[in-house]
Automatic annotation (TrEMBL):
<dbReference type="InterPro" id="IPR036514">
    <property type="entry name" value="SGNH_hydro_sf"/>
</dbReference>
<dbReference type="GO" id="GO:0016788">
    <property type="term" value="F:hydrolase activity, acting on ester bonds"/>
</dbReference>
<dbReference type="Pfam" id="PF00657">
    <property type="entry name" value="Lipase_GDSL"/>
</dbReference>
<protein>
    <recommendedName>
        <fullName>GDSL esterase/lipase</fullName>
    </recommendedName>
</protein>
<dbReference type="InterPro" id="IPR001087">
    <property type="entry name" value="GDSL"/>
</dbReference>
<dbReference type="InterPro" id="IPR035669">
    <property type="entry name" value="SGNH_plant_lipase-like"/>
</dbReference>
<comment type="similarity">
    <text>Belongs to the 'GDSL' lipolytic enzyme family.</text>
</comment>
<dbReference type="InterPro" id="IPR050592">
    <property type="entry name" value="GDSL_lipolytic_enzyme"/>
</dbReference>
Length: 351
């Protein structure tokens, strides 16, 4: 039996909250939401090898930078669309599988065009180009009217920006020579506004945007910026503060967009990942984990991507860790982030 029939059969029995009419899910962004597009890109930013995917179905390393599912997999499963969101660039995707949604995201990318260049990955404008190509492919299979109906009733998620600050602004000199931190935040936000405008022009109406995480708490950031990386594993304030300030600006922008476009059917919402993540690391939520400041893979201090590989030491139970590698959350953390975002998702999918 072809795989998409199985996938569709699963999708049909997933219970749908509020009997929503959501047709598909589309995702744009970075490694937090890339299910494996980078497997098809010439870049070092890949994770299609063990120990990644060690808790995924069949222990398969899919290209997701974690031990299991991403939050976006949980979102589409919760909405009742399908169990996993596949990468658009997978050449084996059937048109049926594509029609209910794909992720265009690429690990290592950012909203600043320079960020994608540094990592040789898919920029946000390129991801939008793929979305336009996707629409043409679906249209040629089912006709323009049906394609437009799918697009209109779909949900869209954008999760991006961490690499702009962690990989680009705070690590390399180019942007720091030209921008103060607050000017750079504005620059990144302007680029995001363009992405949202382009999505709107392509027919997107239900759009969620995740804010930045507490970037100073990422194990790799602690390791590279701490006075004594082994002994002092506290979060680096400068990084997290930049994320908080950006998130405030982002929220204001999204509220303003929603206000302007609500009469046209807009549902534009902000998803806060900063608060639940900081709670898992520093607040009451930290009691759910044994380890909050280093990853499950290798030493947990620096390993990510190709440095976290089949030869790496791996913890025996990833669910005891907030982070799987030195940058990316475990499936348990992604599940908690999804649970925290559910009110925002509910708001977006209610008719």
């Amino acid at each position: 039996m072809p795989l998409f029939f199985i996938a569709n059969a699963e999708a049909l029995i997933l219970p749908r909250p509020f009997n929503n009419k959501i047709t598909a899910g589309y995702v744009f962004g970075d490694s937090t939401v890339d299910p494996g597009n980078n497997n098809y890109v010439l870049t070092l930013f890949r994770s299609n090898f063990p120990p990644y995917g060690m808790d995924f179905r069949g222990q398969t390393p899919t290209g997701r930078f974690t031990n299991g599912k991403l939050s976006t997999d949980l979102v589409v499963s919760y909405i009742g669309i399908k169990e996993y969101l596949p990468p658009y660039l997978d050449p084996n995707l059937s048109i049926e599988e594509m029609m209910s949604g794909v992720s265009f995201a690429s690990a290592g990318t950012g909203l600043d065009p320079l960020t994608a260049q540094i990592s040789s990955v898919i920029s946000l404008p390129r991801q939008l180009g793929y979305f336009k190509e996707y629409k043409k492919r679906v249209e040629s299979a089912i006709g323009k009217k049906r394609m437009e109906a799918i697009i209109k009733e779909a949900v869209y998620l954008v999760s991006c920006g961490t690499n702009d600050f962690v990989v680009n602004y705070f690590t390399l000199p180019m942007r720091r020579n030209n921008y103060t931190a607050s000017a750079y935040q504005q620059f990144v936000l302007q680029n995001l506004k363009q992405v949202l405008q382009d999505l709107w022009d392509e027919g997107a109406r239900r759009i969620a945007v995740t804010g930045l995480p507490p970037m100073g708490c990422l194990p790799a950031v602690i390791t590279l910026n701490s006075e004594s990386a082994i002994l002092e594993r506290g979060c680096i304030e400068k990084f997290s503060r930049a994320g908080m300030e950006y998130n405030q600006m982002l929220q204001n922008e999204l509220n303003s967009m929603q206000g302007r476009l609500v009469h046209l059917g807009a549902k534009i919402t902000y998803i806060d990942i900063f608060t639940p993540l900081i709670d898992m690391i520093q607040g009451l939520g930290k009691h759910d984990f044994d380890e909050v400041s280093h990853g499950c893979c290798g030493s947990g201090f620096l390993e990510a991507g190709f440095l976290c590989n089949p030869k790496s030491f791996v913890c025996s139970d990833a669910s005891k860790y907030v982070f799987f590698d030195s940058i990316h959350p475990t499936e348990k953390t992604y599940t908690k982030l999804f649970m925290a975002s559910r009110p925002a998702v509910d708001l977006m999918i209610r008719n």
